[in-house]
């Protein structure tokens, strides 16, 4: 399995990861605010179709000993918030919600979970990304966040988020062809 995301259609990125199980544990890290905060963002979710999603990002607090964010992400050095709506919720196998409602470019992210012995196949698909820059940012971001999730689930200390994100975004710049 390749850790890197792939473009599956225009404006669509897919990343697959084999994570420690059981599936209920991984579901909790996707849906419970305190667990989600350890790798992505806190905030409440109403786990039903049409339910509200609020993600409260504190990327600079995700890991210890990190670099400052790159200049283009400086506005995300502190707390930032994003809203969305649940599109689909089928515990513990599928969670899908809109990303960035109220902004210029609303997209959608889906998490599909499939048990594989004592592990769980996690498939993250982010759709409706408007530009290549959005695709590069999202690819580097999901890759870095999922790395933190994997480390947390395995009891390891994750590498610095911003340092990792900057490296990965540069790597995706080479991997994802211009439209």
Describe this structure in words.
It holds the Pfam family AHSA1. InterPro entries: ASHA1/2-like_C, START-like_dom_sf. Belongs to the AHA1 family. It comes from Luteimonas galliterrae. With about 180 residues, the protein is of the alpha+beta class. It has one domain: START domain (Alpha-D-Glucose-1,6-Bisphosphate, Chain A, domain 4). It contains 4 helices and 7 strands; from the N terminus they run ββααβββββαα. Strands 1-2-7-6-5-4-3 form a 7-stranded antiparallel β-sheet, covered by helices on one side. Strand 6 and strand 7 (about 120-125) form a beta hairpin. Helix 3 crosses helix 4. The mean pLDDT is about 95.
The CATH homologous superfamily is called START domain
The proportion of residues forming helix, as a percent range, comes to 25-40%
Unreliably modeled segments: none
- State Rg: 15 Å
**Tally of helical runs:** 4
Number of separate domains = 1
Structural class: alpha+beta
Tell me the strand order in the biggest sheet.
1-2-7-6-5-4-3
Distance between the termini: 26 Å
Order of SSEs: EEHHEEEEEHH
Query: What is the overall shape?
Result: globular
Fold-level CATH name: Alpha-D-Glucose-1,6-Bisphosphate, Chain A, domain 4
Pfam family, one: AHSA1
Family: Belongs to the AHA1 family.
Protein name: SRPBCC family protein
Organism: Luteimonas galliterrae
Strand and helix map with partners:
Blueprint: E1 6-9, E2 12-20, H1 23-31, H2 33-37, E3 52-57, E4 80-90, E5 94-99, E6 107-116, E7 119-127, H3 132-153, H4 161-175
Antiparallel strand pairs: 1-2, 2-7, 3-4, 4-5, 5-6, 6-7
